[in-house]
Amino acid sequence: MVHLRDMPEKLRDALVNQELPAYESTPWVDAKPLAESRVAMISTAGLHRRDDPPFAPGAGDYRIIPDDVDTDELVMSHISTNFDRTGFIRDVNTSFPIDRLHELIEEGVVGSAASRHFSFMGATPPAAMEPVARDLAGLLKQDRVDAVLLVPV
Amino acid sequence: MGGLAHILEEEGIPTTHISLIRTHTEKMRPPRALAVPFELGRPLGAPDEPGFQRRVLLATLKLLERPSGPVLEDFPDEPPGTGAEDDTEGWACPVSFAPPADDLSDADLVCRALEQEIGLLRPWYEEAVRARRRTMFGISGRTPEEIARVIADVLVDPSGTAPPIEGESVAVGFKRLADDLRYFYTEAATARPDANTGDVAVANWLWGETTLGKVLVAIRDDAMDSEDPSFKALAVTAMVPTHQRHRTKHG
Q: pTM surpassing 0.90?
């Protein structure tokens, strides 16, 4: 298991204590009830369709994952060697729960899914991601997205 | 992840997120997060466990209905199969290999040893693809044998190797090809339906018992002392998993 508690202490400490940007306050926007919300997912697992270009080291860019994507076409080109991939190899939903989201929509628990989801490669410095993320917010609004589910890896 | 939450929320879009490293989320203070006790790479807990995945997803989405925040809540349960999946005794690669090649100084010999492993793994790889109807292998667009050739060349003469992927440095091209071939090995090794195993068990086999693993460790050892900054940068963090670094010279 690539579990924090099983990592060699030195490496775990380096990961847990890595430098992160400091935020003095937390922004807050009230959300609509879930059953009326259009939800987009953003993954940082370096996911993309097979035909898309793979992620490059240090990349702050993203790939589009259409909501009706053929999940058998999704691959993972994250450069990190330090997380489990055997789960994703067996089942996409281990790190990108698109089938589970669709089920919640069918049951009426969630309103609808965005027409496009997005994937970044985590481990990218937040500063490199910021302009892209602000631009992405505009695209999400154009798609009438009410809430975003962020899924790390 | 927490940074993205801040930015999107500032832009007026409510966010909720799964947190795999609670201490990071405590520092970043995003609006809504569910801390989960799962291993890295498995934010929904476990593969082929739709009921469990649904609970994790729903618990994360429900945080959107909280009246105020920031909210950082803990998901209480370990994923199904915890404990059993650690059991490396229960898993073995379907193929028995000869011990890894001893002589790593001759690129042609190394290439042949890698091709032998690929040949033995191929029927299991094909079995895995048939069963899962999908594969991660192939991102580089090269065949396993083409990748073996590049890896053998990088091992013996990195500075004399032509960039294997157009427009990318030798280091980045090598990295992409090596990652791709590791998918081929991993998918083949976990092809049997009973092979309910995790990353570390497969990695212990790949890095400890195959010529590929031995060669990748040797390339990492050299890359750590390389004057090529792109090799050095990848070597430090992105060539050998943390749980296999004890096999390397630099740790």
A: yes
